[in-house]
Structure formats: structure tokens, C-alpha cells
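Researcher: Here's a chain I'd like modeled. Treat it as a single chain, no partners, no ligands.
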Amino acid sequence: MVNRGYVGEESRMSQQNILVLVDTAIIATNERLNINGKSRALVDRKTKRIYIRGTLPTMPDDGETPTKRYWIPFTDATLSGVAEAEIKCREIDSYLNAGGKEWWSLLPEFQEKKSEASKPKPASILKIEFENSYWLSREKTRKTLNTWEKSYSDIFLKIPDDDLLTETNIFKWIEKTQPNSKPRHDLIRVVKCLADHIGIKDEIDWKKFKCRYKPNKRSLPTDGYIEATFDNMAPDVGWSFGMIATYGLRPSELFQLTDGELAQFTDPSNKRHILYVPEDTKTGEREVYPLHPEWVERFDLKNVFRIKTSSSKLEYKISWLNKLFHKAGFNQPAYDLRHRYAIRATELEIPVDIASKWMGHSLEEHAKTYQKWMSITTFNKAFDKMMEGKGEASELKRLRLENAWLREEIERLKALIK
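Model: Modeled as a single isolated chain. C-alpha cells:
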């Protein structure tokens, strides 16, 4: 027990006299702690601070040896501080004797930090922490920065900075989006990422936030419509339109083509009209072949005529491109030209593994993405091709049988002549 009589005396004594009393108390404390000679945590003093010292299991990131000599700052050098340190030493010894290892978790400083870390943080802080964590394992390139912006940064704007990440607030955020829409689907995905980042993902009932989003089905432009639309376009708009249609480019990739890639494309030695897409794009470097090859000449693609825009942001350039296409009579998203390229590859019987490489997809992603765009017209073409093949096979079989009969007849006639 601490002698309460000291409490009033401390205010009247000089600092030196207080430290003498503190040292005396420390000696007595350590005698009690180490009465059996097995205590691993004792009390000590340096200047005006009480320390807990001992050879203890090594703390994380503090070396590879199993134990280490520690001097842990604990509290001010007062008699009450010595009493508190004695209690903490007994607590540490009991913990270690029971098989515990993380003795530092019993220290006030650690517990304060843990308590501070467990306090809910506003969304503004969570967004910053998540972004810092995101870039720890990624290099910042044009491609990765564009992915971050579209997949996270833009969606973060729908999460109020001052709100906490709670089920009530999540419901409030999601309720502001249309049911089963892409914005709702994307928001739920990002909120899950934030929840996982701070370790509460499993504590939230995500079933109440279900979103059955499916892209709206729409008809893709026919090749005839593409050609007719091109004929009414200005040269710069027509060149961009023709490049996306002929090579199935993402609209963003059109703006990422460098002078070097375009020089390779227009080189007279490039007889197959191969287009080289740069590495710093969504799916990296690849070679793309034209479908249809005759469109290279039809759309005058070797005569490079890029549209001019003052915007430096990729999304704004793409938005401007779509507006130019609409103004010229193409009333569909520019991305539909890329979808049409994928379907055209199927109609022209390009093997799916090759088509997926031309478009910068895995085989699985290619099939998953583009099967839903195949219309009844595409299915009819495939069926008609199959029937045409069967018809050709039947005719060939008939000719072979007829040929075999004629050979036999010739041999019979030869025998009669002899």
C-alpha cells in the first residue's frame, strides 16, 4: 500500500528530497517484486521519470533475438508513480508466467494507441488511408492513375467526407442511387473495399445492400451503318471513327497512340496494316489487326488526321469525341464500335483466343464480355455457315461416291474389251 501521508508532504519538499524518497521506495518495491528471484520486470528511475526495466520477449520489429533488455518509460518520478509501476510489473510477470508473449500490450502507451486506432474515423480520413495503401503495391503510370480515378476516386465523391463508415450511413449513401444500376453497383464495391481496409467488412450485413446490375442490352451498329455514317464525317472525326471501328480500340487508346506507333502503322512496309497499341494503356502493349482490312483504305486511315482538343484529362477527351460522333450522325457510344469489332471477329471466324489478344483481353474475359452482345443476326450467320458447310460436305460425299462408281465401271469395261 502507498503511504498516503506522503501525498501532502510532496508539495512542501524540495524536488531533491522527493527523488530521494522515490529511490527508497523503488528499492523496497524491487525487493518485494523479486522476493523469489524470478521477477522479469522491475522498477527504476532516470532523472524525473519512472521506468520499467527487464529482459523481456522481443517486441515486433525490434530485432530477431528471442529476448531483449528493455527500459520502458512509464510515468513521472513520484511515490504514487512507483506504486503504479509495481502494479504494472506484477501484471507483466503474471502475463508472462501464464504463457503470454505480447507483454507490451499491457503498457498504457500501447493501450492508448489501440484505443485511439479503434475510434471511428470520418470517411475523409479513410479515403486518404485507403489511397496510401493502394499505391504501396502499385507504380503510378498513366494506366494505373486512370484506373484509380475511374474505379475509386470518382466514386469516393458519393461518400460524404464527414460521415462515419456505419451500416446506417452506408444505407443512406446507397439509397441515393438507382436500384440495380451501375452507380449503385460501383458504390457498393468501393464501400466494401473501405470496410475491408479497416477490418469491419465481416461485421456488416451486405445482404441488405444487394444490387443485381446488368448492362442494358442495345443493338450494335451494322457494318453498313458504320460505312454510311463515315461518309458524312469531317476528316479528323472520320479518322478517329474509322480507327476505332476498324481496330476495335478503346476510345481512350486512340488518344494514347504516340507518334512512334502511328509511324509504324503508316510505314509502307506494314502490308498487313497492323496497329501497335502502347504498353501504357488499360491492358498493355498488343498488336491489332484490321477487321475489315479494306476499311484501312476505305476510311483513309494511313492518312493520320487526329482531332484537336485542349483538354488534358482523358475522360474529357473521350466525352468530346462522343459528342463529335453524335453531331456527325452516330447516335451511339463510341465504345459500341469496339463491341462491334468483337462480334465481327466471330462472324469472320477469327479464333476466339486470337480475337481476345487483339482486343487486349483474357480468353475468359473476352467470352464473358462479348457473348451478351451477339444478336440473333450473328447467331443466324453462324447457323447458316454451319448448314452451308454441311451442304458442301454432302455434295462432296456424293461426288466421291460417283467417282468411285465411275472407276469401277471403267475397270469393268476394260475387262470386257480384253
